[in-house]
Design brief:
The structure is a single chain. This protein is of the alpha/beta class and 378 residues long. It has 2 domains: 151 residues, no CATH class; 202 residues, Rossmann fold (3-Layer(aba) Sandwich), CATH 3.40.50.2020. It contains 14 helices and 11 strands.
Length: 378
């Protein structure tokens, strides 16, 4: 009994996962790939932990590696690593968020792999993929700017483009970003009684894993067309009283859906103010006059881990008692591979189920840290 207790202790589990992480690193030759596989096998592990385990490090050893990266100008301890991982792993206010500069140092430290001498380029945004939205606004902007600069800088060994005419022609015809849409696949989603649960979605593979995928207007419009296709194929006629958009990107989606699919029905606007783990509605939000027990389509650009849609759906039902809410999301983050058939393979599946939507429509799936709408709509 005592042996079983020791084997199930957090320390024992940590040592076992660090050993598995090191083995995966040897198999894949990559900290990022090893971390991704660890999170696939053990969904409760946050990205910060997974990258540390992929290096075979304990929290104290990770702190030593961190201090080595700063030439020992810092004296970080394992308790700080624990606080950061607790923050990333928990949805409560436990732990504390790492700063942007700390993430930069950690990314460099973990890029060294188990040996400490590898030179893998680990993205700091990758380390907090599931908790990105809980960072301070300043650190979110810094990570976004860092990713943009890195993706815009071509590798020193990059070969010159051999067919500039083809590239220019693609831009001129508006097809330059068609590669943003990956393969089509069917995912089953919550639906109305006797309705069709199959959603013809598509993947959004990122050419630079670990960085935000920037979409152009053509890609944005393509996703909205896919949502319209799903609504039309629900198996019954869908009449709604209003379309609501969450923040500006959701508002654009709601506007297109209201006009193209729902006979120019009224449009609502839900502007969210987020501060770490707290969400509130801004006074600029708009709630149109609607009949009793209205049917509403709620639009959001992406769903990750944060329970924004749960908060919003409660607000809508408070203002419109008896409201029936359909949910349309452009991009839903997955727990592992992009092409999934099971709704529960989405990171926000439990959040969307708990919101008790009448039906859910998903245009595309994405990987961490997510996607960026045109013109950086919020």
């Amino acid at each position: 009994m005592a042996k079983q207790s020791r084997d199930s202790s957090p320390q024992a589990r940590g040592r076992r996962l660090a050993r598995i992480g090191s083995e995966l690193w040897l198999e894949t030759g990559s900290v990022k790939r090893a971390a991704t596989e660890l999170m696939r096998r053990y969904p409760v592990i946050c990205s910060l932990q997974a990258h540390r385990y992929a290096c075979g490090l304990s929290q104290d050893q990770a702190a030593v590696r961190y201090n080595q990266m700063t030439s020992h100008q810092t004296s970080l301890g394992g308790t700080s690593i624990n606080a950061w991982e607790t923050w990333a792993r928990e949805r409560s206010r436990a732990g504390s968020a790492p700063s942007f500069t700390s993430l930069l140092i950690l990314a460099a430290a973990y890029g060294g792999g188990p040996t400490g001498v590898a030179e893998e380029d680990v993205s700091p945004g990758d380390l907090v993929a599931e908790a990105y939205e809980r960072l301070s606004v300043e650190d979110q902007l810094a990570l976004k700017r860092y990713a943009t600069i890195n993706s815009a800088s071509p590798p020193a060994t990059a070969a010159p483009t051999t067919e500039p005419q083809a590239t220019e022609a693609a831009v001129a015809t508006g097809t330059a970003n068609t590669h943003a849409a990956g393969n089509d696949f069917i995912i089953t989603a919550p639906t109305v009684e006797y309705g069709n649960p199959d959603r013809l979605a598509y993947s959004l593979p990122s050419p630079t894993p670990g960085q935000l995928l920037n979409l152009d207007w053509a890609s944005f419009g393509y996703g909205i067309e896919r949502l319209i296709h799903q609504i039309k194929n629900l198996g019954r006629r869908t009449d709604v009283d209003a379309c609501f958009g969450i923040n500006e990107a959701g508002l654009v989606m709601a506007t297109f859906l209201a006009s193209a699919q729902f006979g120019r029905c009224p449009i609502g606007y839900l502007k969210c103010n987020k501060s770490r783990d707290f969400i509130s509605l801004d006074k600029a939000s708009m709630f149109p006059d609607l009949p009793d027990t209205p049917d509403i389509v709620l639009c959001d650009f992406e769903v990750k881990h944060a329970d924004v849609v749960g908060f919003i759906s409660r607000e809508i039902r408070n203002r419109y008692p008896g409201a029936q809410i359909y949910f349309a999301v452009f991009g839903a983050m997955t727990k592992g591979k992009l092409e999934v058939g099971d709704f529960d393979d989405l990171t926000g599946a439990n959040i969307m189920r708990a919101a008790n939507f009448k039906a859910v429509f998903v245009a595309a799936t994405m990987s961490p840290p997510g996607i960026e709408p045109p013109l950086e709509l919020r």
